[in-house]
Write a structure and sequence with these properties.
The protein has 679 residues and is α/β, with parallel strands linked by helices. Helices cover 37% and strands 20% of the residues.
Length: 679
């Protein structure tokens, strides 16, 4: 059913806020549309709602050290504010950084702004994301992921290269963004104290808790940009849907039947497997319906970057583009041609219970802020529609804002990063939303168990091992496993395994071909577990030189395997910088498992007399995921890579280990935890 409130609900305005009320009826004011030298992209820039407020906005931004800028999706915040600042000479003594929670947004925005400025990407406008730096000495406007700015802060805590930091999509509240908030705030204060060039911090979003942000950033004024360029019509279902995938499929083909082929569709779903499965179904059905051709493009984080950017290419003429995406396309991006958004209302996210210490990935409902962001991907170049596959009542019951990731993840990684940043008292870091003391303590305990930190006189210090662990852009337990690998002469194998695990799924399992998949996997399957099975597949893949035909026959995702090679090369470089001696154990994979047990022992589980498993760290009941090669067996001890919560708590990616190895790895810890007969 169509709905009349096509904007996020009215916000509570703070006293002292500044309003720029934009006139919806005169978007392209003052613009000669024809007959002069103005090029279309310049016309487009001037038609954006934000353009009307440019002089007043600049007036404010020139004076303020901190500003919170809130404006509707598509109003022009991200692409225009950096250019306005630069053109007005604000922050010219250094660089203007614009951070994004996701790499795909950073890359595509840099491309767009370079185009608007008529410059080659990497010159005046550039970007830096993990494993890729497209900037030069000429770069002044630098789009980057928040994680990259954090990494830079390790070498330069005052961020002296930058005069302005624009923290975009602040509502996303990823762990990196939240840590970055504290880092820029400290840098700003320290620079003032040291009489350095001031750092201007601008926080932007369409959907954020302005009071919280303003309070945190020294009571900074809130600048409101009201009004949007193109309307978005919102539709809800009449009844709750029990199967959102089926509902998405039906909606896609209804639109396909009714709308002109140039109107593209963006569907928000939860993860790679679901997306790949729906993509195949859509392609199959599209062949058999008379409504014209359809190109279906999956979009998720573990796709190689070049594949991700495919979504921005226009579909061939007369062909409809359907993009099936996780929340990676939820904020910031403009995908040309998208007229319809289909929102399943679901997202896969981390959940953490500090009491039990369990971090699980689970499919859950989005927040209202996310739902508005998703809707905002339509209506960017012209009016659009968003089909919410849930009822209006269900929408009303969503939580307003996403719970910050910092409050729902294991904090070990964050604590390690803060210590590497030289933060003196990590336990009391100035977080915007403080994680619970139990969660902070549990993060530090985790690092202590791994030997990354030690406590002296109530203070926590990074050990030499911890410093080395922080050099890897990986979770601490992976970093530790790599660092231990020379002791077991199996660095080649461990680097392969960690890279394979970092890249998500390198295998695909079409449900319709279950038997064939099982037969193909059998050749590589190892009774030692999933890590060794993956290693066998990777070795076979390398032996055939990545042959595409071989990949098809063995249900191996050749694109992702290519990415594994890249990641492995990067990790190897870090190892070499740390002077590690890298070698291989050949077929002696016992050593590999032993090394995994020593690095990942925190995620160990023990078989119980009744045939069930308990996680040793938390004593939570856990089960072996059916996708594991160990599913049929009942090994006494395993370490697992992650927990996935669906109907129960499943361990994914398991490695068979000996109780003795766990005891060797952490004698005191396991002395308390292991089954009495084993300890
Ligand atoms: N790559 C692109 N191709 C075509 N048009 C684009 C592109 N990027 C931006 N635009 C245009 O510029 C407008 C403003 O985009 P911008 O990202 O600056 O908005 P925003 O206010 O930051 O939105 P959001 O809050 O959704 O990030 C878009 O609505 C679109 O019309």
């Amino acid at each position: 059913m169509p709905n009349d409130h096509d904007h996020p609900p009215a916000k509570k305005f703070k006293p002292g806020s500044v309003f720029f009320r934009l006139d919806k009826n005169k978007p392209g004011m003052l613009l000669p549309r024809k007959g002069n030298a103005t090029t279309p992209i310049e016309v487009q820039r001037k038609q954006l709602p934000i353009y009307q407020a440019k002089p007043q906005l600049l007036n404010q931004l020139r004076q303020l050290h901190n500003a919170i800028l809130i404006g509707e999706t598509g109003s022009g915040k991200t692409t225009q504010i950096p250019q306005y600042l630069y053109e007005a000479g604000i922050g010219r003594q250094g660089l203007i950084a614009i951070t994004q929670p996701r790499r795909v947004a950073a890359i595509s925005l840099a491309g767009r702004v370079a185009e608007e400025k008529r410059t080659q990407l990497g010159k005046l406008v550039g970007y830096t994301v993990r494993f890729e730096d497209v900037t030069s000495s000429e770069t002044k406007l630098k789009f980057m992921t928040d994680g990259m700015l954090l990494r830079e802060a390790i070498g330069d805590p005052l961020l002296l290269r930058y005069t302005v930091v624009v923290l975009d999509e602040a509502h996303e509240r990823t762990v990196h963004t939240d840590v970055l908030f504290g880092v820029v705030k400290t840098a700003q204060r320290r620079r003032r104290e040291l009489n350095k060039i001031p750092l201007k911090v601008i926080v932007m979003s369409a959907t954020m808790d302005v009071d919280l942000f303003s309070e945190y950033f020294n009571k900074s004024p809130v600048l409101y940009l009201e009004g949007r360029q193109h309307p978005i019509q919102i539709y809800y279902t009449k009844h709750p849907q029990s199967d959102y995938l089926q509902a998405a499929l039906v909606t896609i083909f209804q639109i396909h039947q009714e709308a002109p082929p140039s109107h593209d569709i963006l569907v928000f779903m939860t993860g790679q497997e679901e997306i790949e499965a729906l993509a195949r179904t859509c392609r199959d059905i599209a062949k058999h319906v008379p409504d014209g051709p359809m190109v279906v493009i999956p979009l998720y984080a573990s796709l190689p970057p070049a594949q991700q950017l495919r979504c921005f290419q226009p579909a061939p003429k007369g062909c409809r583009k359907v993009i099936l995406s996780t929340n990676i396309a939820e904020t910031s991006v403009t995908i040309s041609g998208i007229k319809f958004v289909i929102d399943t209302g679901m997202v896969k996210a981390k959940r953490f219970n500090p009491d039990s210490g369990l971090e699980v990935l689970a499919v859950q409902r989005v927040s209202k802020a996310q739902a508005w962001q998703r809707a905002g991907r339509a209506g960017r170049e012209e009016s659009g529609s968003c089909y919410r596959l849930y009822t209006e009542n269900e929408f009303d019951s969503l939580i307003p804002m996403t719970v910050p990731e910092i409050q729902r993840c294991n904090l070990a990684s964050v604590m390690l990063q803060l210590m590497a940043l030289g933060v003196p008292d990590v336990m009391n870091f100035d977080f915007m939303s403080k994680p619970s003391p139990e969660a902070v303590r549990s993060g530090v305990d985790h690092l202590e168990l791994l030997g990354a930190v030690e406590r002296k006189e109530g203070q926590v210090f990074l050990t030499t091992l911890g410093k080395k662990m922080a050099s890897f852009p990986l979770e601490p337990r992976y970093a530790k496993t790599i660092l231990l690998s020379p002791d077991y002469s199996c660095s080649d194998e461990i680097l392969s395994i960690v890279s394979l695990l970092s890249v998500d799924t390198v295998l695909y399992n079409p449900p319709a071909k279950r038997e064939e998949v099982l037969a193909a996997r059998k050749k590589f399957s190892s009774s030692e577990g999933d890590h060794i099975t993956l290693l066998n597949i990777y070795r076979a893949f390398k032996k055939v030189g990545g042959n595409k035909e071989w990949c098809r026959e063995n249900f191996v995702n050749s694109r992702n395997m290519g990415l594994v090679k890249d990641v492995q090369a990067q990790l190897r470089d870090i190892c070499l910088k740390l002077n590690m001696k890298l070698g291989s154990c050949g077929t002696e994979t016992g050593n590999v498992r032993r090394c995994i047990a020593h690095g990942m022992f925190v995620n160990a589980a023990e078989l119980q007399p009744d045939g069930s498993y308990l996680a040793l760290d938390t004593h939570q009941p856990v089960s072996i995921h059916p996708s594991s090669v160990l599913f049929q067996g009942k090994p006494a001890y395993v370490v697992f890579n992650e927990l996935l919560h669906t109907s129960r708590c499943y361990m994914r990616d398991l490695c068979l280990v000996d109780a003795d190895w766990l005891l060797e790895a952490a004698p005191e810890y396991f002395g308390r935890k292991l089954h009495p007969s084993k300890s």
